[in-house]
C-alpha cells in the first residue's frame, strides 16, 4: 500500500484498525480515518464511495485501501471513477489506480504536474482534469453526469472540486467546509479528537457552530483571498443546488441542514460582506 514518504507522519500506521466504514445510505459509504494536518492538527480524513445507478462505483478522496475496504468495494461494484477533489487530497490515488486499472482518474489543474514532480506519486494517468477554462463544459461520462453536478472552485487556494450527488441530495467536498471536531474519524483510535493545543485552536475556528464567523473569515481572507470574484461566482452556482447532506473530508458528516450551513459560510461571497 504505497504512499508518499512525506505523508507518513500525517496518516495512521495501521489504518485498518482505526477506519470506520459506514453506509450513509444504501448507495453511499464513507471510509473515515484519523488524519493530522502537519502531523499535529487532528482534522480527520474521509473517502466517499458512491454506487451509481448503473452499478459502477465512484470514490472521492481515496484513503488507505485496506482489506476491509477492498471487501466493501467488491460488495458494491466495480470502481469506475477515482476522484482527487483538490491538489491536497491525492495521497492514495496511486494504490487505488493500481488496484482498479479500468477506473478513470479525475483531478484538478496543477495536480498531475505536482504528482509528476514526486518520485512516490509520478506515473498516474489523469483522464479528466478540471481547469478554470473548461470547468463549465467538462463532461465525464453520461452515467456520471446524470447523477453528479460539479463545481470547480479554481479560485480556492487548494483548487476545490465540489460534487452534488443529485439522487441522494448529498454534497461531497474536501476543504471547502470543515465540521470539527473529527469525532467519527477518531472514534476507533483511542485518541481524543479535541486533544492538543493546535487542534483546539484550529477546531475552535473551523466548526459549524454559531455564526461560523471564523470559517467565513478563513474563506474570505485565506482560501479566496487572491480571487474573491471568481470564488463568488462558484459559490453562487452551488447556492442553486438542491441538497441536504454534506459529506466533508474533515470532521463529521452533516446529515441534514447542510445547505443552509454552507450558504451561511459562503454568504459574504453570495450576498456581500457586511
From TrEMBL:
<dbReference type="InterPro" id="IPR025638">
    <property type="entry name" value="DUF4336"/>
</dbReference>
<dbReference type="InterPro" id="IPR036866">
    <property type="entry name" value="RibonucZ/Hydroxyglut_hydro"/>
</dbReference>
<protein>
    <recommendedName>
        <fullName>Metallo-beta-lactamase domain-containing protein</fullName>
    </recommendedName>
</protein>
<dbReference type="Pfam" id="PF14234">
    <property type="entry name" value="DUF4336"/>
</dbReference>
